[in-house]
Amino acid sequence: MHLIDILNWHLGHYPLLKAEDIYKLIFQGVFGPGHLLIDKKKEQENLYREVALAVSAKIGAEVEPVDPDGLLVRVNLASIVGSVTKTERLFQALVYTAQNFTPQPELLTSRLHTALKWCQSALPQEAKRFQTIIAQPQHPPRHSTTYVENYHPAYRVVLSRLWSPA
Questions:
Q1: Could you give the CA distance from residue 141 to residue 32 in angstroms, rounded to a whole number?
Q2: How far apart are CA 42 and CA 47, in angstroms?
Q3: 105-151: per-residue pLDDT in tens?
């Protein structure tokens, strides 16, 4: 799958996608989930709490594409609400991914520029904002207020080989 295909997929499922959301998607595809797992116990508690609250999340699919190489996916938490087994499996996948995925920062610039070109044609109203974000990156990246208010995103990024849709 090409980056353009991934961006089109996300725009199709989340038509209110903004520049910040595109940046976060690209960032996750390059860096994976490693920035989340400083404290495993705390992350496990957060995951269980967030899964319990994820009933309001509006998911495009159980699994969403994140990077063109197909290494990573977003697993939507709403798809595992009520399943302790799946929640624990997702936590183990998250830990494994954080420990074993090697970030590829050298890919960030080219992916951002590809996304900018896509944005200029697919979301021209967001192109200037996306260009600003590229010039002054957000760390950590955050979803736009519009995206949060409309889609209530709740997911974790894991290696795709560790999670297949039910």
A1: 12
A2: 9
A3: 999 999 999 999 999 999 999 999 999 999 987 778 999 999 999 99
